[in-house]
């Protein structure tokens, strides 16, 4: 069954015009290194397909070993006369993968010259959020404390049972790799803060727990009452839904560079809005009765740190998502700019596109784009996939 499925995928790939690969190293339960290979292409029914192909055993995690394994598989998928079809290779940002001279992407591109390297967008977002927390000691401490809640209850079935009875909601563990776990933890603590305080106080008063549990429960209850903690909890409760939303969009099967550019711009706008309203975050707690813990920093200092968090996210988003050739190419297909392009053709973006993808016919592409820009029916398209589907639905594949 597996071999039949692979053969069918290879047939689809070989009849498709272009191919992109995605790969990542993983460790199985026997602690053996493997490479996950995913293929992305448009099938003969004009649908974007993203197919898991196989787990490839690795001799080692070196660039040479990974590149050799990839090239061997690609040779079995693409015949010699179809090498130009491979136009993208997407990995994480580890130096062994992205190295410009000795990395996997370079070794693959030596054989498949059109295979441009793209740093996985979702991984880029993870790195942005790591920077927004690890660089600032107060936020680093906050995320360490957030992890402490799940850790407290996971140490004992008796504690977990008490949590289920009082709060009726489990606390997800945090993860440095998947930021949606952080988001779930933050949302749970934010939404059930009062219930958690009641839970910790009940543990202290029940007389059924050991001194160590009582001491930890008391510390966590005090933490939930702390103004600094409440400020960062509310701040990230505002930020994380936008991170989750962008993270989900970046992993959609049918996304293209135009959608990515628009989604990133929307994300930046939302983070900027949060930055502009930092003064309102934590207002309720700041005006309340003194808390059980001494306030460590002033409201002004908290607002300054909140601004630094937002600025770090915005700055790294601009830096990490400024892929010159690929996002410049995307501007050619932004429907909201077609009216502008009808009068002034984007020659610079076209030149960048031809440099990135030399298999394209520049003069023919310019003629086709000029026609697209002049027709109102194309202006509703928001990217290459939308435009492609419109061509197919209206039998325009011979025209373009």
Structure description:
There is one protein chain. With 400 residues, this protein is an alpha/beta fold. It has three domains: 2-119, Nucleotidyltransferase, domain 5 (2-Layer Sandwich); 125-320, no CATH class; 324-393, no CATH class. Helix content is 60%, strand content 10%. The chain is built from 19 helices and five strands. The chain has helices spanning 2-15, 63-77, 95-98, 104-111, 121-134, 137-154, 157-166, 179-191, 193-206, 211-225, 227-250, 257-276, 283-286, 299-320, 324-330, 338-343, 347-356, 362-374, 384-393, and strands at 19-27, 33-42, 48-57, 86-91, 116-119. The protein has a five-stranded mixed beta sheet with strand order 3-2-1-4-5. A hairpin with a 5-residue loop joins strand 1 (19-27) and strand 2. Helix 8 (179-191) packs across helix 11 (227-250). The longest helix has 24 residues, at 227-250. The chain is globular. It starts with a helix and ends in a 7-residue tail after the last helix.
């Amino acid at each position: 069954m597996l071999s039949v499925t692979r053969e069918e995928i290879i047939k689809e790939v070989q009849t498709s015009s272009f191919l992109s690969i995605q790969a990542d190293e993983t460790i199985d339960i026997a602690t053996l290194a493997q490479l996950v290979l995913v293929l992305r292409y448009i099938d003969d029914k004009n649908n974007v397909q993203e197919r898991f192909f196989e787990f490839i055993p690795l001799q080692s995690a070196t660039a040479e070993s990974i590149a050799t394994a990839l090239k061997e598989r690609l040779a079995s998928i693409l015949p010699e006369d179809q090498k130009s079809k491979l136009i993208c290779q997407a990995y994480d940002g580890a130096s062994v993968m992205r190295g410009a001279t000795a990395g996997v992407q370079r070794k693959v591109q030596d054989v498949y010259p059109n295979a441009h390297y793209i740093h996985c967008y979702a991984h880029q977002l993870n790195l942005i959020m790591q920077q927004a927390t690890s660089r600032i000691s107060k936020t680093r401490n906050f995320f360490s404390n957030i992890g402490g809640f799940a850790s407290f209850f996971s140490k004992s079935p008796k504690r977990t049972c008490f949590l289920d009875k009082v709060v009726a909601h489990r606390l997800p563990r945090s993860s440095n790799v998947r930021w949606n776990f952080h988001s779930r933890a933050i949302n749970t603590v934010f939404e059930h803060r009062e219930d958690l305080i009641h839970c910790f106080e009940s543990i202290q008063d029940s007389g059924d727990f050991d001194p160590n549990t009582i001491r930890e429960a008391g510390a966590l209850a005090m933490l939930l009452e702390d103004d600094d903690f409440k400020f960062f909890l509310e701040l990230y409760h505002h930020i994380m839904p936008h991170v989750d939303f962008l993270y989900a969009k970046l992993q959609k099967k049918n996304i293209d560079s135009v959608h990515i550019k628009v989604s990133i711009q929307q994300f930046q706008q939302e983070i900027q809005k949060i930055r502009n309203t930092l003064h309102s975050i934590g207002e309720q707690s700041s005006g309340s009765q003194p808390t059980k813990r001494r306030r460590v920093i002033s409201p002004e200092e908290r607002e300054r740190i909140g601004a630094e968090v937002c600025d770090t996210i915005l700055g790294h988003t601009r830096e990490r998502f400024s892929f010159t050739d690929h996002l410049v190419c995307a501007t050619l297909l932004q429907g909201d700019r077609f009216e502008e392009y009808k009068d002034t053709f984007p020659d610079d973006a076209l030149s960048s596109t031809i440099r990135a993808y030399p298999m394209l016919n520049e003069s023919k592409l310019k003629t086709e784009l000029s026609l697209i820009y002049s027709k109102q029916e194309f202006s509703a398209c928001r990217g290459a996939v939308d435009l492609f589907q419109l061509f197919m639905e209206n039998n325009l594949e011979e025209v373009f």
